[in-house]
Write a structure and sequence with these properties.
It is globular, with a radius of gyration of 19 Å. Strands 6-5-4-7-8-9-12-16-17-18 form a 10-stranded mixed sheet. Helix 6 links the parallel strand 16 and strand 17. The longest helix is centred in the middle third of the chain and has 13 residues. Helices cover 25% and strands 26% of the residues. It has a single domain, classed as TIM Barrel (Alpha-Beta Barrel), CATH 3.20.20. By secondary structure, it is of the alpha/beta class. The relative contact order is 0.14. It is found in: Plastid, Chloroplast. It comes from Asparagus officinalis. Pathway: Amino-acid biosynthesis; L-histidine biosynthesis; L-histidine from 5-phospho-alpha-D-ribose 1-diphosphate: step 4/9. Its main location: plastid.
Length: 310
Amino acid sequence: MMTLTLRSASKISPASFHQIKHKKNQWALPVCPSSSCSSSRSVHLVVECGVRFRPCIDIHEGKVKQIVGSTLQDSGKGTLITNFESDKSPAEYATLYKKDELAGGHVIMLGADAASKCAAIEALHAHPGGMQVGGGINVDNAQSYIEEGASHVIVTSYVFDGGHMDLERLKRLVQLIGKNRLVLDLSCRKKNSSYFIVTDRWQKFSSVILDKTSLAFLATFADEFLVHGVDVEGKRLGIDETLVTLLGRYSPIPVTYAGGVNSMADMERIKKAGKGNVDVTVGSALDIFGGDLSYREVVSWHNEQKSVRR
């Protein structure tokens, strides 16, 4: 019964999609009450995922790494802080996530080098339809990543170009791949008590403030949001609870928060502050990335959030 979640949506025929009611992390799908489907009577199962753990694979120079994102710079100047570098390939991590039935995670290319692109594609092949991909996505390459197996493409800098939102670019992207294939990365930093969307490896502040109005507007173009709390990301010092509260209160579509998670208590804080509406990504803190937080414990927590009601 738990297979009637969006994790299996790619297996549902296109003609059936009009039957699915989608609201944040809840879907309703009419199913036949018997395997023979001989009766015209149908039963509605409502599948609630609650808060979900969204796995991640960050790729830098072709390898899986955990890097303090705010230290990445195109110029190569400054000190790059790397928390972890794995001897396992991105495809191995994707295979693990597929085995554990984790979907909706993201593969992020932290660079435009050929090795990172190849590694990302290998990860998509290992978990087809189960991972989103981001990093240098634009109107010229978005469709190719979908064809390689990405469920969605994740976009920031292409849309928030030069510090401003380029609405024409956003519209072209939606026209090309469809709203249901687009995740907008609205990662932000706090300035003067407001959260501003940041671009170009989180080095540049845009003019767009993340609030109720901007979330409502951007939701008309995207299927999901991904939001890194850049001020705490990669530092394992705790979450940005104020940001999580904002997302849980105002995001009208599914949203995933990343940044600062260091314990199971932090997972519960996100669940509470986000009112059950904000999914969570964990990076450096996980033991599979060199941290102390048990990946298995996080997966168990994820599974506990799910319930099926008739």
